[in-house]
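Session log. Operator J.P. requested a structure for one protein chain; no other inputs attached. Running the standard single-chain path with token output.
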Amino acid sequence: MATEPLPLAGITVVAVEQAVSAPFATRQLADLGARVIKVERPDGGDFARAYDTAAGGLASHFVWANRGKESLALDLKDPRGLEVLHGLLQDADVFVQNLAQGAAARLGLDAAALCARYPRLVAVDVSGYGDGGPYAHKRAYDMLVQCEAGLVSVTGTPERPVKAGIPAADIAAAMYAFSGVLAALLRRGTTGRGGPVEISMLESLAEWMGHPLHHTMHGGEQPVRTGLAHAVIAPYDAYATADGDRVLLSVQNDREWRRLAREVLERPELAEDPAYATNAARTRGREDTDAAVAGALGKLGAEEAVRRLEAAGIACARLNSVAQLAGHPQLAARDRWREVDTPAGPLRALLPPIGLPGGAEARMGAVPALGEHTDALLRALGMTGERIAELRGDGVVA
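Structure written below.
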């Protein structure tokens, strides 16, 4: 039975990208079939290549965000390097860049300039704070944007704010860049014209802050930091079990509370007790609510606690480590793991979460070495071996 091709087969993306936000966006495009040409500096390439050596000697960020791409090592500050890039853009469908604010414009590679020159091109500018405004030229690393967007203020314990354990601002910007490209390509199919797409890390993460933002603006108070607990629902937290594990549970309504009290806590008197019977009461008396739940679960092993909670229809989860995620039985049962080729050999990686039943499986291509595809790409542009050798000797390519 024939399968449908990947939806972005035939789309060519050129990316002048680094770190996480733009690379993670273009990786989504590569997984869905696009050809992604990653343009890197000849002297070391994308600086995320050097973040760590945890992934078989390679940087874990880089392996995660750069599979399925071709690497072209090119000095864009040299006019000959820019000429090569424009040679690629003549036939490209999408251009993505996340250079430091102003750097792309100085090179004539900002979205507005490129779309004026190549009308069918979808050109994406990813920045920390957007083009314009008092923060436009402010350095924008993920943790800094998490702070500016208020995410850190609502994350952590009452005593201490903490940043998210993943690069939330980078990922937010990446996913809006990804969806922005898809929307612009869809529009181009109707109008025949591409156009610029602008993505700001701050604005992306501010959108994700919608609940605390509306709660504060319209309710007058910022949600308090509650660790693993929920600011307005109780019980909703992780509780220690007798075997040293932790189980998180969430009671969403008063019917569930009554089932929890009777079937799991084995304290039926709490089901109708006015101090516990409503969520408002349980939240006001959170300390007592949590003590009642903790006392019961603390006498059970984690497996028994989960069994009882599920039998009572109470939402629950194990508080897994990252290593436990890597061995999660649900991911294994759904066959979500594949091997991706890298310069260090094959490494396990998850299939992307976008499923297209009946279509071809996501293309999880190899993670490229720096400049691995330079010669092939230059030859495809019509360059001779002598010309390539000259550019390499001058440090324009690598």
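Operator note: The first strand starts at residue 12 and ends at 16.
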